[in-house]
Write a structure and sequence with these properties.
239 residues, alpha/beta, eight-stranded mixed β-sheet, 8 strands, 21% strand, binds S-adenosylmethionine
């Protein structure tokens, strides 16, 4: 590992706003933040720009950036500490195990900015809008909570629209070719968004709600917590 990455890895171990594979946090996030404001997740947060941006925009909101890469989380966590933004935390975990870290209804919204699109069909299960992930979101998201996706990938955008349609989710908002000067939450730009815009790639946005039907994501709803806890990257896929 490069020297800078190693230093950052060591540093985040001592950051009060970074929790790395923590045990027993499900249901404890409001106690962690010491308030009862809504909690928004940013999945695959990288440097955490959405978490930072949302908390700067809204006084009564907590944000948790989730990513497995500690050296990327370092940037967002360092910025939050420097700006004394204490309504942000960073959670270093595999998103495949999200359901182990949150209790039912503990999350009020989910942002997924520029996830890896995994264009190969054989890797569709890794897309963060695949039904196996939607099932996990259903376990922790409040009813009517919105899931927001921003992407430069036309394929992932269309795939997600198809999943929404097939699983009975409700499309809430859609904007293709989001303008550079979009305002409010949509105007927050991440590292990947800036890169894509610099290359002239159009950016697409949509948001949707999950269905009330708990079996909407069969067969994923058959997966038990033991299998999720035992899951390791590269191990047998959760089926
Ligand atoms: C393409 S980058 C986007 C980063 C950031 N959202 C942005 O827009 O700049 C995708 C991020 O998702 C993280 N990621 C992808 N799959 C993940 C998983 N299964 N669990 C945790 N993090 C994951 C990667 O580590 C990476 O930081």
């Amino acid at each position: 590992m490069a020297h800078k990455k190693l230093i950052r890895f060591e540093e985040i171990k001592h950051f009060p706003n970074v929790l790395s594979f923590p045990e027993g946090m499900a249901g404890k996030w409001h106690a962690f933040f010491q308030n009862d404001f809504p909690i928004v997740l940013e999945l695959g947060c990288g440097k955490g720009e959405y978490s930072l941006g949302l908390v700067r925009l809204h006084d009564r909101l907590n944000a948790i950036g989730v990513d497995v890469k500690g050296n990327r989380l370092w940037k967002g966590a360092r910025t939050a500490l420097d700006e004394q933004l204490n309504r942000i935390a960073f959670l270093r975990i595999q998103i495949e195990q999200l359901v182990l870290y949150f209790a039912r209804n503990e999350v009020s919204a989910i942002w997924i900015p520029f996830p890896d699109p995994h264009p190969r069909k054989s890797r569709a299960k890794k897309r963060l809008t695949h039904p196996r992930f939607l099932w996990q979101y259903q376990q922790i998201l409040q009813p009517n909570g919105l899931i927001h996706l921003k992407t430069d990938s036309r394929e992932l955008f269309e795939y997600t629209l198809e999943v929404i349609h097939q699983t009975g989710c409700k499309l809430f908002a859609i904007q293709e070719n989001l303008p550079e000067d979009a305002e409010g939450e949509l105007g927050i730009q991440t590292y990947y968004e800036r890169q894509h815009r610099a290359e002239g790639r159009p950016i697409h946005y949509l948001s949707f709600k999950l269905p009330e039907n708990p079996t909407a994501f069969e067969p994923w709803s058959q997966i038990n917590l033991t299998a999720i806890a035992a899951w390791r990257p590269g191990s047998v896929q959760l089926t």
